Amino acid sequence: MFFRCSLAGILLGVLLFNGCGAARKWEYELMSVETYSSDESLMKIDVRVERVDRGVYGVTGSVNWNYDTSDETMVQASVFKSNSGDESDYKSLPWAIPAQSLYEHMNTYYKDVSMKNFKHCSNVPQFEGKFQPPLPKQIYSGDKCVINCDGLPDIVPPGFYKIIMKCSGPGQPTWNATVISKVTTKMF
Ligand SMILES: *[C@@H]1O[C@H](CO)[C@@H](O)[C@H](O)[C@H]1NC(C)=O
């Protein structure tokens, strides 16, 4: 479940969920976000972490989505964990989103999680019923997005988590994003 919010975030170029519910026994801090695009004239991702409040960080940024998506646009995500934070220590976790079409993604993870969580702080697409392709070409931006992660487990083992998301399609730019976050046990 952890990755769902993240994938959500990437679509926007935004993420972080520091403001999770009271029952949660863990806290989350965004360490870094790195992005790559094979063609910035078609897909430009520009995100940064911003302090919103004491111990709370949100993400501000924009994604200039300037290409036409198709039925063949695919997204996927994988998650790795490291106890120490050392690069060599990251191990693959079974939490992942296997390659799926972007439109399928829009009708599932996106609609269930991202669309709601980012509504208050961004202009990500909002829709009812089924997503009507294609994804509108425009600049999607978010301002200090701290999302509340409904649907995340109460317990997440502490450590460093690396989430890698990738998107590509035939004749389309390839882009990816790597997010590293640190999970700690909540102090009461
Ligand atoms: C992102 O894509 C580029 C180009 O294909 C690749 O060199 C890079 O390793 C990718 N990043 C990740 C984290 O997979």
UniProtKB/TrEMBL annotation:
Keyword Signal on entry: yes
Native organism: Drosophila suzukii
UniProtKB keywords: Signal
Annotated InterPro entries: DUF1091
Signal sequence, start to end: 1-22
Protein name: Lipoprotein
Family annotation (PANTHER family): CHEMOSENSORY PROTEIN A 29A-RELATED (PTHR21112)
